[in-house]
Structure formats: C-alpha cells, structure tokens
Task: inverse folding
C-alpha cells in the first residue's frame, strides 16, 4: 500500500524520475484545459443551453457568490485564481475514486505548492489594491515589535493549508485501502462515498480560506476608504 503518489514511480532514468504525482498532475491540468475549451467553444446566451454550459455556469455562479459574500462585489479579479484552486482540488479528489488513479492532492509536495501559490497571491492582491507601502505597513501595526508575529502567522497558515489538505486526502485513501483488505465490499463502498464527500469539503474549505486570506489583505484599504468617506460626509 502506497501512502503517497510520490512513492509510485512510473518511469526513471538515472536522476530523472517520473512519479504518479507529476504524471497525474499534468494529466489533470491537460484535462481541465481541454474540458474548458470544449465547454466554452460554443457558448450561447439564448436557450437552449448545452448541459456542459449549464453545469459550468452553475459552478461559476456558486463560486462567485461565495467570493462575493466574503470580499464584496468586486469579484472578477479573484475569480480565476480561487476558482482554479477549487476546481483542481475538487476534480483531483473526485477522480480519486477511479481505480488506478492517484490524486495529486494526496502528495504533500502538491498541497505545499498550492499553499505556496496562496502565500504569494495574498500580498500580490493586497499590493495591487493598496500599494506596496500601505500593504507592508500593516505588518508593523500596532507596533514594529509585531513584525515577527505577523510573519510567523503568514507562514503558519500556509503550512496549515498544505498539511490539512494532504492529511485529509491521504488518510481517506489509506482507510479505504485498509478496509478493502479486511472487510467485505459494502463497507469500503460506503467509505469511498464518505471520502468523496470529504474531498469536496476540503476543496471548498481550501478555496474559502484562500478567499478569507485575500479579504484580510484588502481589509485595511477598505477601512481607510470607508473612514475617508464618513469624514467627507461629516464635513459636509
């Protein structure tokens, strides 16, 4: 029983190694790109809409609504990044039910890479909204002595994102594999359905936490705008 797709070697030549994590990650990325192209090649604004377009619109509308509830009405800058994270994790966990498929999210290297993307995306969005000086100034609030604590907080939440996703996906797959060896078919099937549900919940949690982190980076700027507006109204 393999605990991680990193240990499943597909091809190796000297120091070059192709493991299941790399292979299935690239296959998933290619599949998502081709699926997006196939669904969007003939978009229509008038009924009847294709089932694929209906499904895509439902997914995008749901993601937009979740982002809007946290960040506000200006959803468009954040939808591509957060939506891509959610779809990649969701589809990866969903395909984990396919025999022989090793979900990339069962590898700590994959979840760490996703969390690293979030780690860099948060300041990028914050700087784009506030500017470099205003964004990094919040690391010194309310005192410069808080700088190390803010930095540790940023690093720890990135680590938590990676380990949480990896731990849930790996533990679910491990439990199902163990049950397949010691009990009849019915219990593993139920556990696989539960694993599927947990995988989708983890995709949702990862996307929501990413949105919350981005929203926290934008919060200072929005509060300044709000206070400036209220001061202007008071002056008039």
Result:
């Amino acid at each position: 029983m393999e605990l991680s797709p990193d240990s499943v070697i597909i091809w190796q030549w000297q120091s070059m190694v192709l493991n299941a994590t790399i292979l299935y990650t690239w296959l998933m990325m290619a599949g998502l790109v081709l699926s997006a192209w196939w669904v969007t090649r003939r978009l229509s604004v008038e009924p009847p809409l294709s089932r694929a377009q209906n499904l895509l619109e439902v997914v995008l509308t749901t993601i937009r609504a979740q982002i809007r509830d946290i960040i506000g009405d200006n959803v468009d800058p954040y939808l591509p990044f957060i939506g891509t994270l959610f779809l990649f994790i969701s589809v990866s966990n969903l395909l984990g039910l396919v025999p022989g498929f090793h979900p990339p999210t069962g590898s700590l290297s994959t979840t760490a890479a996703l969390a690293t993307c979030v780690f860099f995306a948060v300041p990028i969005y914050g700087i784009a909204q506030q500017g470099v000086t205003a964004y990094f100034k919040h690391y010194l609030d309310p005192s410069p002595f808080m700088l190390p604590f803010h930095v540790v907080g940023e690093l720890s939440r990135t680590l938590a994102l990676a380990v949480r996703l990896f731990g849930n996906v790996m533990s679910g797959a491990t439990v199902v594999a163990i049950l397949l060896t010691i009990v009849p078919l019915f219990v593993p099937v139920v556990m696989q359905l539960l694993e599927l549900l947990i995988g989708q919940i983890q995709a949702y949690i990862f996307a929501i936490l990413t949105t919350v982190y981005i929203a926290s980076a934008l919060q200072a700027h929005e509060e300044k705008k709000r206070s400036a507006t209220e001061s202007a109204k008071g002056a008039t």
User: Anything to note?
Assistant: The first strand starts at residue 9 and ends at 13. The beta strands are 9-13, 16-19.
